[in-house]
Amino acid sequence: MTAATAKKPSVLFVCVHNAGRSQMAAAFLTALSQGAVEVRSAGSQPAEKVNPAAVEAMAELGIDMSAEIPKVLTTEAVRESDVVITMGCGDTCPIFPGKRYEDWELEDPAGQGVESVRPIRDDIKTRIEGLIASLGELK
Predict the structure, then answer these.
(1) Structural domain boundaries enclosing 54
(2) Catalytically annotated residues
(3) Does any domain span residue 89?
(4) pLDDT (tens digit per residue) in 62-87
């Protein structure tokens, strides 16, 4: 298989509401990987809308999440992903053999202002940079 036909690695971010942490992680991975990674995010109990403080915190770094919508976690999304990163969804995430699973312990930004969301955002960015470096192993 040549580099041009190689399958892109795919990553699924999962949290309870798919409104803050998983949305920020997906947005960072999309932006920082420059399209080299297929990115998904979902929640076990999706909120009605993305956390406005998370949208504002990401906009400060030039990443627009304003059009994102929380999505429900499906078995198919897990099955189709190479890496599944959970953020406090507990046992609601289906497990499939052969997938790489990571659990990132991050504070939940729900109900917090942008000042409290910034450190969470910055932690996620650092983790995404490490994730991108490790995804080379999947190619």
Answers:
(1) 10-138
(2) 15, 89, 93
(3) yes
(4) 999 999 999 999 989 999 999 999 99
